[in-house]
Specification:
mainly alpha, single chain, binds MU-OXO-diiron
């Protein structure tokens, strides 16, 4: 049986993934409303991925016979300074999630929760990719600044994102 500490931390991580899902959805709505449909599409897809992360942990806890305790999701920010500012916030969010996953991994190791250690390895790799992608987008926006045609190109590029396969769940 998992220790109370590990169970609580896994439930908190589910909340964090759902918070990311909600935040990305709000970011997508903001971009859509400003006719940056490519950005909106990219963010909507990211939002779907976050829901997938939450459900991967949710399914894993059930397989491990741990109670899933869902808690309130904070309201997302709905007004942003600009489209590039949205992606800066996305990167900051990914960095925060990575720190949380790393802390959870350390806790699982300390508590000798070995199955959880293995499960969390997927999340660690996923965060490396998500941070890398968000960082590259932020860097491009910094280069573009206020150049309208480059902004439109960037919107088109982001709109080319296609869904990735569902994360391999434990359920
Ligand atoms: Fe599931 Fe992007 O953190």
């Amino acid at each position: 049986m998992l220790s109370d500490k590990v169970q609580a931390a896994l439930n908190e991580q589910i909340n964090m993934e759902l918070t990311s899902w909600y935040n990305y959805l709000a970011m997508s709505a903001f971009c859509e409303h400003r006719n940056f449909r490519g950005c909106a599409q990219w963010l909507r897809m990211q939002s779907d991925e976050e829901l997938g992360h939450a459900m991967k942990l949710y399914n894993f806890m059930q397989v491990r016979h741990c109670p899933v305790v869902l808690s309130a999701i904070a309201s997302p920010v709905t007004q942003y300074e600009s489209i590039p500012a949205v992606f800066k916030l996305a990167l900051a969010q990914e960095e925060k999630v990575s720190a949380s996953i790393n802390a959870l991994y350390e806790l699982a190791l300390n508590e000798k929760a070995f199955a959880e250690v293995v499960e969390l390895q997927w999340f660690i790799s996923e965060q490396v990719e998500e941070e890398r992608t968000a960082r590259a987008i932020v860097a491009k926006f910094e280069l573009i600044k206020d150049d309208p045609s480059a902004l439109l190109d960037m919107d088109r590029e982001l709109g080319e994102r296609r869904p990735e396969p569902e994360p391999g769940g434990a359920a």
